[in-house]
Design brief:
Strand content: 15-25%
Helix content: 40-55%
CATH superfamily of the largest domain: Bordetella uptake gene, domain 1
Largest sheet: 6 strands, mixed
Number of domains: 2
Distance between the termini: 17 Å
Number of helices: 12
CATH class of the largest domain: Alpha Beta
Oligomer: single chain
Number of strands: 11
Strand order of the largest sheet: 2-1-3-10-4-11
Shape: globular
Radius of gyration: 20 Å
Amino acid sequence: MTHETSRRVWVSTAVGVLLGSLWPGPSVHAQSGPWPNRPVKIVVPAPAGSSLDIVARLLGDKLKDRWGQPVVVEPKPGAGGMLGVDQAAKATDGHTLVLGFPGPTAYAPFLYKKMPYDPVRDLVPIVVTTTQPNVLAVNANLPVKNVQELIAWAKANPGKLSYASVGNGSSSHLSMELLKSEAGFEAQHVPFNGAPPAALSTANGDTQVLFAVASGIAPHVQAGRIRQIAVTSLNRFDSLKELPTINESGVKGFEAIAWNGLFGPVSLPEDVVARINADVNAVLAMEEVKQRLTGAGMAPGGGTQAAFKAMIEADMKKWGGIIRKLGVQLD
């Protein structure tokens, strides 16, 4: 089978899964003994200091008390998040989870001809942890204060605009590709492994613009080196009310919401998945946790496993179509 034929088969299968809501559930086998009976590992497919790292450590600090076991957060950035997700997808210890995001779970099947795992077949979604828009931000020395000025500057200065992203295939990357397509300007993509190096690149002026979650760029915004100009939600975001949306800034209908959520290998037993879902929901309902997440520009998640599956399926359907339309391929 050729690579292209293999890819067509995969995409066809994925679309069938979406339309039929056939994402496999966790293993029906019961856990041998009480869970957890050893430390629980949360793999973070992004560097230390990233928004994912912040969420994982906040949850881990609370979950360790409920579980009576240490919760170890292990950053594993690389390959647009696929390195960390692959590690968790292939884990067999029953105690390894991954804090996933759209890039390596919902977008990657449409971006790569070959992947080390199949997110539909090999992962079980457990619970949404946060949702948040990306922030459109520019280097403070770039002479633009809003979306329309950015578009005009890019058109007037062809070949001079480059944008950082937190990784190939991330919402940071695809949000800019969508904006470029909708607004009709060009910019060179410079991918990084996570928000900290991407934000530093724009703060230093090595790149001029990026999409990132608010917590990922906050230190540079506070230092006056990066200027925030808009958010990617369709309506203004509660914790970033001062920022207009790209939709209201003239690019009608623009929306690109990022999310994070816990996944496990598909072999994780049903009772364990239910336990994790319930405990994470309880932690996310804590006032202290809600305040810390909203203060970092994120909305606390929670909800059922079924709701998380539906969110992922909707993202795959939407962004699979956008990726094909834009012709974005990463291998």
